[in-house]
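Protein record
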Amino acid sequence: MDIRWVLRTIKAVAVLSFLVSALTGCDGNAPEPTANSKESNQNGSGMQSGQTGPYPINTKDSFSYWGTMSTTTASFYTNQGDSEYGKEVEKRTGVKVKWMTPQGSNINEAFNLMIASGSLPDAIEYNWASVYPGGPEKALQDGVIMPLNDLIDKYAPNLKKALSADPSLDKMVKTDSGKYYAFPMIRPESSLVYKGPMIRKDWLDELGLDVPSTIDEWYTVLKAFKDKKGAQASLTLIKNSKGPDLDSFVFGAYKVGDNFYVDDNNKVQYGPMMSGFKEGLKTLSKWYSEGLLDRDFSINDVKALDNKMLNGKSGATHYLLTTGIARYLDIMKEKNPYFDLVGAPYPTLSRGEKPFIGQTDFTYLPNYAAAISTRAKNPELIVKWLDYFYSPEGIMLNNYGVENVTYKLQNGIVLYTDLVDNNSDKLARGQVLSKFTKVNGPTILDDKYAPPPAYKQQEDAYHAWSNTDAQKHRLPPFITPTVEEGKELAKVITALESLRTEMMVKMIMGAESTDDVDKYTKKMKEIGVDQVLDIYQKALARYYRR
């Protein structure tokens, strides 16, 4: 593997990881783009973008655009249009856009209320694959958004060229009926793994212990952290919208996912109904009962996690590469120069096994897909505007900001200016870049020019977390149910997720015995899990046939 690929991999991660997002697509754990080798194409996915086209556009028309901001950007602005990025986009494209930025923490609710009101903006950037009841096919049938095939063909040469160059990506971003429904966020392969188990290496060294790779080794390490380092809770976790943020950490050792997943026979399974899930619960329950797992594992937010990891209350967690490892190393550089944090592999039962599953994403991330509503008066203009972000110039703006303001190019590598890395306000790189860039949205995440990571620990963690079979076992988030299937899913999924979270928390905390799993399995069947499995299986088969 080209070391330049690895070194660049992790910095573009920094661009996206500022966000401890308000979206569950990130659940406080935003995807963190990485960077690829010099030999990669402009978009880092083996695709060559087309030319920028006639920008700025000569028009007096405008349109409204509904979409979220990263929490870092939101700390400076209440509206994306007020940001340096928004101003630069208007100058370069020649189009006046009315940015509509939803406020508050419950963005799903804001989205649903907007759809229900019938008062729609011209373009809407959100997760149409999972948030809209029935998915994108239903949104098209309902007349909420319009199919984009003809519009992309005529007015989006940059996106069209990217999709034509990568058939697997092209398959991801359309419905089973072959309709393009949104402008996608496209990521290079090197950006797909950005989260995993991490552990205090300085504590391990002091205790003469290796980085754990099996469940038994994890128990030994966590016990030593409690008994010999005085950790209040050796392992701490953060809560996301679906309960403890694990990405099948622990459960994968028992050959199951902690939610819906695909087994070795391409059959969709539901982890909580599998025998391996019960074994994972037993392990976590044992750690909890012995004080090794944080008693607040089901309610911790980012602030609580930071407090425990930075103040010696915990020595391990499951968290982000840049927002976790790099940020923690930055913070502790002066406070405790001996502080060291490294990534650990997803645990297995036997040393040398390849982990069954872990965190990974796909080239297409549906969370930030921009669709055009049927209320739009000038969809051609919106398509031309969106296509700018797939041009070489638009890609550089979205990823790195403005040349000679936030960065300079030297020997094919981005060097950030003093405004970014040595500013008088003492803002971190990610904070400054959040004013000038927008990597969460319809664009291509770049890994061609990214500078190397700040810490070797990032590179090592990326390797440790990437060495799994997760790509084989993750259920793709962009499979699309039929309209009728979508209606059935809408009736079941929320209740099923609530029951799953209740089961996990109660059994890990010992409020209920893991022997009661069968009772929950019966409830899951009553709710309709078998119908969900059947729907997902059919949707997966249709996806393979696209």
About this structure: DSSP finds 22 helices and 15 strands in the chain. The first strand starts at residue 62 and ends at 66.
